[in-house]
């Protein structure tokens, strides 16, 4: 009788070993970490939605250049095609107006056509790029598509601005700007940040005046 507890202890130990081995080898494809890793990527957004948004191709350097300033090394997406882009490299060599917005921001919606009008006036003298500062890229593209539909109905020019997708608001953080939208970050040709404007622009002349004052470019 004294040997029975010992036998049971050996049997229990064996069961524990088998269970532990099964747990160690069990596939973890359905675990929480794997589910997060398999979240839909930007490239899974359909090309039809990107085209309807009117987002132009993001600026890209013709030759191999290095990015400088606080935006260097950031990896953002391009709203036109979802491809990664380093804003400092893409904008190197010319002043830039980066307009930070989000799909849920009503003043941003009103301001975007004004930015587009200024971009048409500025031409190649200044790079005008929007920066969607929110994780909802599909919602941003849908909002732009809806805005373009509205502009067409009104007989107004559609939006054809390049845009960066910045889900973590890294551009805002790099500029030291407050947590508010819209914000426009003014970047010098050497990559340094001249200033940020934490308010919506009233009209094209308002933008032109600020850019002339902060970046020294008159258009």
Automatic annotation (TrEMBL):
GO terms for molecular function: oxidoreductase activity. SUPFAM superfamilies: Thioredoxin-like. Pfam families: Redoxin (PF08534). Keywords: Cytochrome c-type biogenesis, Disulfide bond, Membrane, Redox-active center, Signal-anchor, Transmembrane, Transmembrane helix. It comes from the Bacteria. It is found in: Cell envelope. One of its GO terms (biological process) is cytochrome complex assembly. The keyword Membrane applies. The keyword Transmembrane applies. InterPro entries: Redoxin, Thioredoxin-like_sf, Thioredoxin_CS, Thioredoxin_domain, Thioredoxin_ResA/DsbE_sf. The chain crosses the membrane at residues 6-26. GO terms for cellular component: cell envelope. Gene3D superfamilies: Glutaredoxin (3.40.30.10). Residues 33-216 form the Thioredoxin domain. This is Thioredoxin.
């Amino acid at each position: 009788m004294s040997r029975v507890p010992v036998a049971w202890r050996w049997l229990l130990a064996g069961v524990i070993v088998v269970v532990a081995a099964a747990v160690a080898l069990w596939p973890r494809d359905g675990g929480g970490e794997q589910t997060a890793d398999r979240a839909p990527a930007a490239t899974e957004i359909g090309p039809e939605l990107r085209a309807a948004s009117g987002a132009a191709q993001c600026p890209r350097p013709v030759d191999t250049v290095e990015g400088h300033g606080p935006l260097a090394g950031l990896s953002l997406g391009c709203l036109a095609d979802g491809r990664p882009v380093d804003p400092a490299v893409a904008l190197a060599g010319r002043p830039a107006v980066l307009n930070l917005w989000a799909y849920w921001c009503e003043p941003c919606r009103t301001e975007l056509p004004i930015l587009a009008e200024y971009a048409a006036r500025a031409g190649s003298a200044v790079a005008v790029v929007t920066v969607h500062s929110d994780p909802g890229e599909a919602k941003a593209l849908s909002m732009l598509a809806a805005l373009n539909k509205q502009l067409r109905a009104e007989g107004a020019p559609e939006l054809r601005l390049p845009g960066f997708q910045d889900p973590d608001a890294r551009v805002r953080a790099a500029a030291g700007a407050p947590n508010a939208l819209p914000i426009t970050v003014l970047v010098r040709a050497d990559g340094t940040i001249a200033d940020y404007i934490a308010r919506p622009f009233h009209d094209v002349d308002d933008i032109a005046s600020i850019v002339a004052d902060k970046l020294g470019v008159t258009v």
